[in-house]
Amino acid sequence: MEISDPQLDGADGSRNEMGSACNSSGPSAGLHMHFGRGLILAAVVWIVVLLTWRAALTADFVFDDVVRIMGEERLIVAPWDSWRDMVAGQRPLVQLSLGMNHYLGGLDPRGYHAFNMLVHATAAAIACVAALCCIQWLRIRKSVQMTQNSAYLCAFSIALLWSLHPLQTAVATYVIQRAESMAGLFTLTAVLCLCGAARWSRSPVACARERVRVAAWGVAAVCCCLLAMAAKPTAASTPALLLAIDVFVVAGSLRAALRARWFLHAALWATTLALIPLGVVRGLFASGAGNAGAGLRVAN
Fold first, then answer.
1. pLDDT at 171
2. What is the pTM assigned to this prediction?
3. Tell me: the pLDDT tens digits for 148-165?
4. Most exposed among 28, 88, 119, 300, judged by the fewest C-beta atoms under 10 Å?
5. DSSP conformation letters of 15-27
6. Contacting residues for 160 by C-beta, under 8 A, at least 6 apart
7. Half-sphere exposure of 221 toward its Cβ, with a 13 Å CA cutoff?
8. CA distance between the termini of the chain
9. What's the pLDDT tens digit per position in 253-297?
10. Of 162 and 203, the one with more pLDDT
11. How far is CA 144 from CA 32, 119, 252, in A?
């Protein structure tokens, strides 16, 4: 993912490219996402994470894995067998992944751990690219003084530090913790999508193709929010995180962020309504066994 240096931009932040078929004004024109050096760094991160956590393939089921997978094997079904059973809980995406693992390998823990490792490695690679985008936005706004090579090194270091930290051990060795890693994967992807959507300029000279492309980034961000909540309801904080990144990293102020992308943020916050069909709101007032609610039921 090669990102242009703002030093090459014009005084008004626009790119000085005579051959561009669709020039958009404003600093967002300095952010160009395409395959290149950043993607290579992300691939390196992906490989390093898999190699580092490869020993997890020899691990067995532990803690809640024994209860949720081995003890409740009858509830782990392939989606084409029973959609109702799959979406019965608050984490349907996790249940779907467990069903696929069970369909392909039964109770062999290697397949479950392999899936966890792939999710974590992919999240780390996306974290590298998302960090690179955020750093570049800060450079474009001249909030930080950093060379392009330093930006690459910083994003690469952030991704590795986050993904290889010992606190991440449970992500690879604890199967049920895939709820955290899957929610994190889609949250980081939503951050990346926000950076892509922010490229749109309000200038009337912006071409229709560019607007459609950025609208697709926005739709992808909304879908990622929904998927993150389907993995774990705590991802309901994702819209707030995206708004904070837009305000402090991309736009520079709340007014600028809402003026440019108010509709996108409204759609992102609307995804929290998915907590209702997921049973999260109802679960807050329940205290039954196995329920993750807060037990706010009124005492008799």
1. 83
2. 0.82
3. 889 999 999 999 999 999
4. 300
5. ---TT-SS---SG
6. 45, 48, 124
7. 32
8. 60
9. 999 999 989 999 999 999 999 888 877 777 666 654 444 444 444
10. 162
11. 18, 32, 13
Angle between helices 254-270 and 178-197 (to 10 degrees): 130
What's phi and psi for 265, nearest 5 deg?
-70, -35
Write out the two tokens for 5: 């240096």
Q: Which residue's structure tokens are 């392999």?
A: 114
Q: What is the dihedral of CA 123, 161, 238, 148, to 10 degrees?
A: -90
- Which one-letter amino acid corresponds to residue 53? W
Q: How far apart are CA 218 and CA 261, in angstroms?
A: 9
User: Structure tokens of 83?
Assistant: 């959609």
Q: Are 197 and 225 in contact (CB under 8 A)?
A: no
